[in-house]
Amino acid sequence: MNLNPALAGVFGGDLRFAANFRDQWRSVPVPYTTLGASVENKFYHQRGKYHKYFTGGLVLNYDRQGSLNLTSLNISIPISYTAPLTENRLHYLTLGVMPSFGQRSFGTDKLTTDSQWNELFFDPFASTKEDLLFANTSIKYFDLSAGVNYRAQAKEKRSRIDVGAAIFHLNQPDHDFWSGGDNVRLSSRVSVYGLGYLQLTHRLDLVFQGLYQKQGGYEKLIYGGGARFHLNPKRYNELAVQVGFNYRSRYRDAWIPYAEVHWRTWVLGVSWDANRSNFRAATQGRGGPEVSLIYRLYRVKPMAFKSCPII
Fold this sequence. Notes:
Layout: E1 15-24, E2 32-46, E3 52-65, E4 70-76, E5 79-84, E6 91-105, E7 138-153, E8 160-168, E9 189-199, E10 204-215, E11 218-232, E12 239-248, E13 254-263, E14 266-275, H1 280-283, E15 286-297
Antiparallel strand pairs: 1-2, 1-15, 2-3, 3-4, 3-5, 4-6, 5-6, 6-7, 7-8, 8-9, 9-10, 10-11, 11-12, 12-13, 13-14, 14-15
């Protein structure tokens, strides 16, 4: 849902839990630590032939970075609606919105400025003379995002594809810490992606993905692929291993190898950024690890039957 609010509810099952942890650039003085968690629940209003449903959920993102511990906390409420485009239910369209409530803050205990240099030595107890610059060290804001996702899937195979687009920070919320009234706004972020699986054999799938994002003057392009090996394709006892590589080509930044284990309705994923840009002189090529865990739950559906009168 950090790619697109319309991906809420686009999964097999009725309830999904996800957790994510990323530790980036630990070898430099300003590491980034990011935590994420989400839960989604489907609400069916038309089963059977059409299988339409709403999805509601909760997303939590927490990020801390730098020596001043610039902290971002974001709580989002994704809401989406999914409906089939054809009667055979092989093509679905999902529309999603995601209102969010955020807070950003930083500390000044480790803040140092040149005004603390008295021409002879650095005095850590001298005034930074920045008291009038920061109107506050904490801000709160409301945010809004929206998107659309299209899914096509094969009738009797595992093959499927998702393509979609989203715009985050539609209202461009105020992110101004300063007292000068510069009216600092969070730029809107555009996200366009494609995710696909192609079943080659009973036990082998090809995986491919691509992502483009743009926010203000910054751009990101990631693409790659891999293979999923189904060690046990038996229903309700599935076991598969997926391995692959992605490449972040903007600024020739990083190779990203990853591996996933799929067991029943559990998914454990691990990836690693290997920096290839000029910044590798500081990171020593170690971008950082990322770990994710996903669990999907299927609810038992009541059987539909007609009563038979006793004659």
